[in-house]
């Protein structure tokens, strides 16, 4: 395969992929091996498979929606550049999510984004809004502006947690990552993640009661 | 309840923290869950902690709306990769001829230096012997007292002839 031009090898992989029965898709390891040999099509398939979850990780760390896609693209660029060094000791997804979390920290550091920790009082309208959300099973109001306002209020409440605790909580509760995955992403022991998650939840609830419960 | 009392009471329940996290997410094995349920019946603090966990989970759910990468995301990523690869190739093609010639340039430069050095050694060899230099002459003249000053009058000319004559005999 060494003497075959890249584009021929890539199309060979593409043919092989399409030639397989629909049920037997190449797994991540096969695709990684092909990408390590320089087959761009294989990497493209990896991007297609993992883009949603990478966006979820990045979306769990970053606040501004407009930043999320830019950083997610950067994550895949970095993965492409360093895929040759990936030794397959962990799952490709774990390695990719780690890149995503690090890329987000770098982005926040470069942009010098500080956690929102202002103690300004919530308006009566905001209190009513968030209470209504908590007491119902809705996903944050019917229209996008209501959802955006709710997100802003909760973001202000989360501002009292450390950045890492905030990220853990959002990844677990909002993005549906397992405790084990979060531990691998943040290089933390599973039990540590559980305990920190639990304490972060308690702190958030206390902040809510202090700032929202006090109004009602 | 004071904060100290609360902390003391919670210290006894710390061992349940990880289990409560699993219990709240419904991931605790059935046997452990039964044991924790018994504990929760008697422990107000842990019941409150569990309520807090559920409340915060509800609050954070506001972020659960999936961020959709959109249909063209993969194409945009791959396009960026192609642009980056093209740039890297261009950089390589710019530097490659320079890299190829660099060792020849280095060799020629070192040869030239060696030649200059050997030439310098050879041209310095004869001038190594001490020899009054042109620069020193005016210095010696400046400080040397003339043996005899040139005669300026007729008497002085006669005196000089007499001296010469006297020296000869």
3D architecture notes:
The complex is a heterodimer of chains A (216) and B (169). Chain A is mainly α and 216 residues long. Chain A folds into two domains: 106 residues, RNA polymerase sigma factor, region 2, helix turn helix motif (Rna Polymerase Sigma Factor, Chain: A, Orthogonal Bundle), CATH 1.10.1740; 90 residues, Orthogonal Bundle (Arc Repressor Mutant, subunit A), CATH 1.10.10.10. Chain A contains ten helices and no strands. In chain A, helix 6 packs across helix 7. The longest helix of chain A is centred in the last third of the chain and has 24 residues. The N terminus of chain A is likely disordered. Chain B is mainly α. Chain B has a domain of 60 residues. Chain B is 73% helix and 0% strand. Chain B is built from seven helices and no strands. In chain B, helix 3 crosses helix 4. The radius of gyration of chain B is 52 Å and the shape is elongated. Chain B starts with a helix and ends with a helix. The chains are: A mainly alpha (216), B mainly alpha (169). Chains A and B meet through helix 3, helix 4, helix 6, helix 7 and helix 8 of A and helix 2, helix 4 and helix 5 of B.
């Amino acid at each position: 395969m060494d003497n075959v031009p890249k584009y021929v090898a890539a199309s060979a992989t593409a043919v092989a992929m399409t030639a397989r029965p629909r049920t037997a898709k190449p797994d991540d390891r096969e695709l990684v091996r092909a990408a390590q040999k320089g087959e761009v099509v294989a990497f493209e398939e990896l991007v297609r498979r993992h883009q949603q979850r990478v966006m979820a990780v990045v979306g769990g760390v970053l606040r501004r929606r407009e930043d999320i896609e830019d950083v997610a693209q950067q994550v895949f660029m970095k993965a492409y550049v360093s895929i040759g060094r990936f030794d397959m000791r962990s799952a490709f997804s774990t390695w990719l999510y780690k890149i995503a979390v690090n890329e987000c920290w770098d982005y926040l550091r470069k942009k010098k984004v500080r956690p929102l920790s202002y103690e300004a009082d919530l308006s009566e309208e905001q209190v009513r809004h968030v209470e209504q959300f908590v007491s119902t099973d809705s996903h944050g109001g019917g229209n996008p502006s209501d959802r955006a306002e709710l997100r802003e209020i909760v973001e202000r409440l989360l501002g009292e947690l450390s950045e890492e605790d905030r990220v853990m909580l959002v990844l677990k509760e909002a993005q549906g990552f397992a405790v084990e995955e979060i531990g691998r992403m943040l290089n933390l022991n599973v039990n540590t993640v559980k305990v920190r998650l639990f304490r972060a939840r308690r702190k958030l609830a206390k902040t809510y009661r202090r700032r929202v419960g006090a109004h009602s | 309840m004071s904060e100290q009392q609360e902390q003391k009471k919670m210290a006894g329940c710390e061992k349940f923290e990880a289990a409560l996290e699993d219990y709240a997410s419904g991931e605790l094995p059935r046997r452990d869950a039964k044991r924790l349920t018994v504990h929760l019946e008697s422990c107000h603090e842990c019941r409150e902690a569990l309520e807090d966990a559920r409340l915060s989970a509800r609050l954070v759910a506001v972020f659960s709306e999936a961020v959709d990468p959109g249909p063209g995301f993969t194409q945009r990523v791959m396009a960026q990769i192609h642009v980056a690869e093209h740039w890297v190739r261009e950089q390589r093609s710019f530097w490659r001829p320079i890299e190829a010639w660099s060792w020849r340039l280095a060799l020629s430069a070192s040869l030239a230096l060696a030649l200059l050095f050997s030439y310098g050694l050879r041209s310095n060899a004869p001038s190594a012997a001490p020899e009054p230099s042109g620069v020193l002459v005016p210095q010696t003249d400046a400080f040397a007292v003339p043996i005899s000053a040139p005669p300026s009058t007729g008497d002085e000319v006669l005196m000089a002839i007499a001296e010469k004559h006297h020296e000869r005999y």
